[in-house]
Amino acid sequence: MSTRTFLAVLGVLAVVGLLTYGLLSKGTTKISVGDPVPDKVLPRLPGPGRASIADYRGHWVLVNLWASWCGPCGEEAPLLERFYRRERRHNATVLGINVQDNRDDAVAFLRKHGTTFPELRSIGDERTAAFGSNGVPENFLVDPKGRLAVIWRGEVDERILREQFLPPIEGQR
Amino acid sequence: MRFRWSFATPYGDKAHRSGRWAALGVALVLGLSAAAAGAATPKTTVNAIEGEVMCPVCGTLLELAESPQAQREKVFVAKLVAEGRGKQQVKDALVAQYGPEVLALPKASGFDLSAYLVPIVALLIAIVALAFSVVRWRRAGDSPAPPGTSRDGPADEDAARLEADLKRYDL
Is the full-model pTM beyond 0.80? Predict the structure, then answer.
């Protein structure tokens, strides 16, 4: 192999390596049931203070990714509030994570829907990428050990909550 | 020594004092109005910002995006511009709300730095490769012509064949 060919191959490999690294570092993560929940300390909404999903270890946590501009998020908010009020007596809670939103709109959304469950706010797309999220809303059930028990990409309704999210919680009562 | 107004007033000390307060009030209102007017003077335009930031959900420039998130982001930008914030201030506020992904230009650190470095490195490599090629061509040009060939044109045999071809195709 001549020096020129060697340099050309080296150049091509460098470009391919750079593109691969870029795709891998920017891409979303694939998560599955049984995996540890992606977690990070985030600011509380509306504040003050910070918290993470790990702070609720020992409880079942329904994690709800939402944004104020998302119509279905507004439709499922009252259902999640009812779920929270009903299930918090049974070692379960709902934790909202506001994503891809601006703070004022997010706070106005909470006021409008009167939700009382704890909320965190994620700035940037790091959280949505960590959950392998394609959009909002998305819902996840985390078991008391911090592992994913249910992954639901999209809006939940009463039937989905009853058939998908309740059985694991009721199974451990 | 107590400060006193230099002009006389026919209404006595009480009127004098209330006049002083009124003057102070007017000055305060004027000052606040001027400050408010200054703050509300737009330093940039919505269009100038929307061409340089992204809709993070759509992955396109904000000026091209029509999604619900983009609509809210546009309202947010318009509000900041109306408050008299400069372009960089608006961008900083957007980053604080939506993260660094909201900027259309990649930041000059981490992997994103390659967006600036790769074109420069590629240009340098191209210049070096071109310089090498030119040197090689010039060297090849200086070397003596192989036997049976001429620098001024094709060899006799080739010239005859070319002539025959041209006649055949009536060119």
Answer: no
